[in-house]
Design brief:
Layout (H helix, E strand, L loop, with lengths): L20 H14 L7 E5 L14 E4 L5 H11 L4 E7 H7 L1 H10 L4 E6 L34 H7 L4 E6 L3 H13 L4 E6 L11 H6 L1 E3 L9 H8 L5 E8 L27 H10 L2
Parallel strand pairs: 1-2, 1-3, 3-4, 4-6, 5-6, 7-8
Antiparallel strand pairs: 5-8
Helix pairs in contact: 1-6, 3-4, 5-8
Length: about 290
C-alpha cells in the first residue's frame, strides 16, 4: 500500500521546519502502509502537545483528549473495537509527566495498543521548560540554572512494570523507526516505542547531531527475549541503544478478559443503542 493514502491536503501545519516530528510521521505512515493498513483500519488517540498533533496531519480515525490520558482512552478504544490497530501518541511530557500514572497502570493492564512517544527532552509546545526526560544540567527558559532532578528512564520503567515490547528509535533513521513500529503493531499486547527527536526551537543541547552522536544500534545477535539483558541495556547512555530492547510473550491482552469478547457476544461498536432506555434511565436520576 502507498503511504500516501494517509496524506492530508489543505491543512494548517503547526510544526517548526526541521522538527523531528515530521520524520516520525513519515515512519508511521510507512510502517502502516507496509502492514497493508489504511486510514479506516487504524485509530489514533492523543492528548496535548506538538507530538500529540501528529494525528491532526494525517488521515485516520482520531480522538483528541486530555493531557496525559491517551493510553487510558486508547485502552477503551481497543476494548470497544478490537479489530482496529490502536495508537496512543504524544510527547515525553504528555506521556511520562501528566500521563505518568496512566503510563504505569496501562502497562499492568496490557491492552493491545502501540504507545508512540516523541521524546525531545523538553515541553516543545509550551516554550521549552524541562520535561520528565530532560537531562540533569539542561538549561531552559524556566530552569535557568539547569535541571537538577534525575530524569525518568521510560524504557527501564516499562520493563520493570512488565511490558512485553519495549523499543527506542531515533527520528533521523526513518526506515529503522518504521521497522520498529511495524514490529510493535504486530506484537500482541502493550508496546512502547520511545523515539528520540530534536526540538529545534527550544532544545539547543539535544540536537539532531547530538542524538546521532550519542545513540547506537543494538549489536547483531542481541537477544530481545532476555528481560535482564534488556534492563541492563535500558540503563545505558551515551550511546543510548536503539532498537527493540525487549519482545516476549505476555499475558492475554486486557480486552480479551472482558465479557464483550466472549464467543457470540458482539463488541461494543456493533451494538445498537436503545435511546428510549437511556432517556428513561436519565429521567430516573432526576
Amino acid at each position: 500500500m502507498d503511504p500516501g493514502v494517509f496524506d492530508l491536503e489543505d491543512f494548517d501545519m503547526q510544526w517548526c521546519p526541521g522538527c523531528g516530528n515530521f520524520q516520525i510521521m513519515e515512519a508511521l505512515k510507512k510502517a502502516l502502509a507496509e502492514l497493508g493498513l489504511g486510514p479506516a483500519d487504524v485509530v489514533f488517540h492523543s492528548g496535548i502537545g506538538q507530538a500529540a498533533k501528529t494525528p491532526h496531519f494525517m488521515k485516520g480515525n482520531f480522538f483528541n483528549g486530555l493531557h496525559g490520558r491517551s493510553v487510558s482512552n486508547a485502552t477503551g478504544m481497543k476494548a470497544a473495537n478490537p479489530g482496529l490497530a490502536v495508537f496512543a501518541i504524544g510527547g515525553d511530557g504528555d506521556m511520562y509527566g501528566e500521563g505518568g500514572n496512566h503510563f504505569l497502570h496501562t502497562i499492568r493492564r496490557n491492552p493491545d495498543i502501540v504507545n508512540i512517544v516523541h521524546n525531545n527532552m523538553v515541553y516543545g509546545l509550551t516554550k521549552g521548560q524541562a520535561s520528565p526526560t530532560s537531562p540533569a544540567g539542561l538549561k531552559t527558559p524556566v530552569q535557568v540554572d539547569g535541571v537538577f532532578e534525575t530524569p525518568v528512564n521510560p524504557l527501564a520503567l516499562a520493563l520493570t512494570q512488565g511490558a512485553g515490547f519495549v523499543a527506542r528509535a531515533f527520528s533521523g533513521y526513518v526506515d529503522h523507526t518504521a521497522e520498529i513500529i511495524r514490529r510493535a503493531v504486530s506484537f500482541r499486547g502493550y508496546a512502547l516505542v520511545d523515539i528520540f527527536q530534536p526540538c529545534i526551537s527550544f532544545n539547543k543541547t539535544n540536537t539532531f547531531k547530538w542524538f546521532k552522536d550519542n545513540t547506537a544500534m543494538l549489536p547483531d545477535g542481541y537477544d530481545a527475549g532476555d528481560r535482564e539483558a534488556a534492563l541492563s541495556k535500558a540503563m545505558e547512555s551515551r550511546p543510548y541503544p536503539l532498537g527493540v530492547l525487549y519482545e516476549s510473550v505476555t499475558n492475554e491482552p486486557f480486552e480479551n478478559h472482558l465479557a464483550c469478547h466472549d464467543s457470540g457476544v458482539r463488541p461494543l461498536y456493533e451494538r445498537e443503542v436503545d435511546m428510549e432506555a437511556v432517556k428513561n434511565y436519565l429521567r430516573s436520576m432526576q
